[in-house]
Amino acid sequence: MHRVVGSFDEALAPGSLAPDAWDFATVYDTWFDDVLRWMAAMGAPCADLEDLAQEVFLVVERKLDDFDGRNLPGWIYGIARKVVASHRRRGWIRSLFLRRVEEASSLYVSATPVVLLERKQAWQIVGSVLAKMSDKRRRVFVLFEIEGYRGEEIAALEGVPLKTIWTRLHHARKDFVTLASEYEQKEQG
Amino acid sequence: MERLRHLAASDDPKVSFAARLLKTTEPHRVSPHARARIRAEVLRQARRRPKTVLRSTVLLMLLLLGVLGTASAKWGRTLAPRLAEWVRNGRQTQRVPSAAPTPARVQQPLGLAVAAIPPPPIEKAAEQVAAPAAVERKPVVRPKRVLPKPSLATEEAQRVSAAFLLLRRDHNASAASELLDQYFREHPAGKLTEEALALRIEAAMALGADAERFAHLYLAQFPAGRFRELAQRILSRH
């Protein structure tokens, strides 16, 4: 389950990233999957993930020449955050006019329909619990617990010290355990 | 740090339940087809961008020109006159009103042809202009015109027209002769010398003396003048 993210090590190694050594095709191939996972962790709707990834890489393609060569994943992660936030605002405005509420989270429903059916109840709990968590804590929690990123990688993405990530993760775990327990009690009661 | 999903065997039932929940989740899977499709779309849009940017710039400039044109038309038609009037009124209210009204400008006759109508006196004209302002209900302050003093040509015209009236209307040839002689003395190179000489010929004829002399004078000074037939007729008689 724990994913190997060698590209992070390359990207974060000092002096390993010369801006002119990275073309768009390399960046795209290296980080496309991660961008989708990041945006899922940010709470972007599953149905819109591909469209949002396209927006992210359009920005990346346009601004890649201006990239200073430091912390490429953090730079792309920042773009993804802005795109998701913008999408969320647009969704809110659309919901005002169309009376349509966007789904809160992708809930990681990437399995086959049969597996989805089997795990439906568990995912519903996970989704509802994640939806109640704060944005910062949910991002760290999902990236660490579900997507399998390391603490150093999350710190590089978020642009904060590693200790801050551990603190957020600690509180996020407590929130998740408490909320999941409350959900279970409510279902049993 | 150990991940929560690995603590399913924890003694704490809450942690165990949360760990079991997380075990049912898995990282987001990305389809290879989506990766290729999005890549192609991104590259296609990136190639189109210059044209799009150019088109957007042109459209924006056209829109800007339209807005500026409309705004300038609106400004020129309505706002600018209002602003000018407002500024003018603001300046006028700051002025101290003068005690006496300024006399209005009076158009003076410049030739004998229009000299038949007597020019109104300056004081009378000033009263005529000042009178309507006194009865106006709304005290709209108008810009006061600073009238120039009567010019030399205007004085000459008054003098000649007075001689004309004395001669033609009052049939007082001697008074007209004196007035014209005075004019010739004061204005030896006057602008109305031709008309004055013609009048002086008529006055001399009425008095029965010196008409020829003035006729010679006229023809000497104005051989192609308007009144040369009069002068030639006088000379042909004698």
Describe the structure.
- The complex is a heterodimer of chains A (189) and B (238).
- Chain A has nine helices and no strands.
- Chain A is an all-alpha fold and 189 residues long.
- In chain A, helix 2 crosses helix 4 (72-98), helix 6 crosses helix 9 (162-188) and helix 8 (151-158) crosses helix 9 (162-188).
- The two termini of chain A are 34 Å apart.
- Chain B is built from eight helices and no strands.
- Classes of the chains: A mainly alpha (189), B mainly alpha (238).
- Chain A binds chain B through residues 1-3, 28, 32-33, 36-37, 40, 49-50, 53-54, 57-58, 61-62, 106, 108, 110-111, 119, 122-123, 125-126, 129, 144-148, 151, 166, 169, 173, 176-178, 180-181, 184, and chain B through 1, 3-5, 14-15, 17-18, 20-22, 24-30, 34-35, 37-39, 41-43, 45-46, 49.
Summarize the amount of helix of chain B as a percent range. 55-70%
Major β-sheet profile of chain B: none
Number of helices of chain B: 8
The ordered H/E elements of chain A are: HHHHHHHHH
- Structural shape of chain B: rod-shaped
Number of helices in the DSSP assignment of chain A: 9
The greatest interface between two protein chains, and residues involved on each side, is: A-B, 42 and 29 residues
Q: Spans of chain A with pLDDT under 50 lasting ≥5 residues?
A: 1-6, 100-110
What structural category characterises the helix and strand content of chain A?
mainly alpha
Tell me the Rg of chain B in angstroms.
48 Å
Structural class of chain B: mainly alpha
Please write the string of helix (H) and strand (E) elements of chain B.
HHHHHHHH
Task: Detail the poorly predicted runs of chain B.
Answer: 106-117
Overall number of strands of chain B: 0
